[in-house]
Amino acid sequence: MRNKCVKPLNDIEIKLSVAVEKLEQADRIDIIEQVEGAVDSSFRELMPLSRYPAWKDIELDRYMLDAAPRFRGMAVWWETEKPLPAVSGEFRLPGALGLLRQKPDPVIGSMRDRFQRDFVAGLRFIDHSFASSRGIKTCIRLSSESSSFELWHNVLEDIEVPPYPPGYLRLTLTYEEYLEQLSLTKGLHGWQYLFTDLDFFSGPYTGLLDNVRTGLEVFTEHFPDEDYSLLQRQMEERS
Hints:
The chain contains seven helices and seven strands; from the N terminus they run αβαββααββββααα. The chain is an alpha+beta fold.
């Protein structure tokens, strides 16, 4: 591994590092930006959560405490080169301390009502793709009622699922499952749509899966040792 830290990598850190290495080694895939910070503190090492006001009533499960990524920051932005079809991806993960110190999204001021303001106030991003100008992110929703976080994907498309603010889609994934799929998709733009209830069969959203569909075809050829069967099934159900 490229990481020169003293702490050994945990399982998901290894998978994410290997995902980036595969992109680097693949023919006709250009790495535009890549960052892998040193392994920093785990969530357990940053306890008690009472030191972080928004988290003081939050209970973390064992995975988040001990098995979540600890990189001080990790990111990759990539695109295919000709003659491959145009496909792109990006992911950017904050470290545990960065996540705990996050402030609410300033967009909270533009919300329509108290429900939407409270909803946005409880979101903290765990992944985003701002460098490639996609302006999308995936967030956990802080709640004192459960140690299993809801995941919400925030997109620029004018998608409305009342009573939630426009552009927010609930993902049918846990935090752990999200990271596993992220390591597999390598941040392929749009992969999160495969784990939403959005209707892609008609209306304005039919083209949102184009990058994912083409990307899975490229990945199947370039990374034959990877198992994309779940993603392909999700695609078939939505195409």
